[in-house]
């Protein structure tokens, strides 16, 4: 192989790495690792956003826009009684919506499985815990981990919750999850720190 051919291979590999970097989903500029996220409430999608787009398109209380900036608040809670919500597993998160309902999600090897919680049932849980009334619709969630004897309850940004979904998808093996998934889930919770 000539030096020129080798240089072309190196250049092509570098270009592929550069193309795989994250880009703003609104304007396509490259993003750094600490970029913000927004929720497109109309399409129920999480979007990566550069700082100018997150400021330009963020929904405020007076606008009719459908982009919602994901807050960075993390708050550890005392255990929340989630039995009325019908959670079939010990690891789930609940995202309130503007109409008073909530979407429940649980991480699985296939991604986030979800179902809808009706407004009256969700409001019943919120009425028992004042902190839940402060959740930003579409952008924050109640994350509950009661699997394997754990008792972890958090208010988190939805991007953190979907990061947990990615951990489960990446590490799950076989029917029960294998030996790698649970230590990684524990690490996720251990590394959470409160921030307002």
Task: Summarize this entry quickly.
By secondary structure, the protein is α+β, with helices and mostly antiparallel strands.
Features:
single chain, 196 residues, alpha+beta, 30% helix, DUF5947
Give the structural class.
alpha+beta
Main β-sheet, spatial strand arrangement: 4-9-8-5-6-7
Distance between the termini: 57 Å
- Report the radius of gyration as a whole number of Å: 20 Å
SS field, number of helical segments? 5
How much beta, percentage-wise?
Answer: 15-25%
Q: Which range best describes the helical content: under 10%, 10-25%, 25-40%, 40-55%, 55-70% or over 70%?
A: 25-40%
Shape: globular
Query: Largest beta sheet, briefly?
Result: 6 strands, antiparallel
Please, what is the average pLDDT? 86
Spell the H/E element sequence. Answer: HEEHEEEEEHEEHH
**Total domain count:** 2
InterPro entries: DUF5947
Question: Can you characterise this structure?
Answer:
InterPro entries: DUF5947. It holds the Pfam family DUF5947. The protein has 196 residues and is of the alpha+beta class. The protein has two domains: 3-69, no CATH class; 75-191, no CATH class. 30% of the residues lie in helices and 24% in strands. The strands form two sheets. It has a six-stranded antiparallel sheet. The mean pLDDT is 86.
What's the arrangement of secondary structure elements?
Blueprint: H1 3-19, E1 36-40, E2 45-49, H2 51-57, E3 67-69, E4 75-77, E5 91-96, E6 102-108, E7 111-117, H3 119-128, E8 140-145, E9 152-157, H4 158-171, H5 181-191
Antiparallel strand pairs: 1-2, 1-3, 4-9, 5-6, 5-8, 6-7, 8-9
InterPro entries: DUF5947
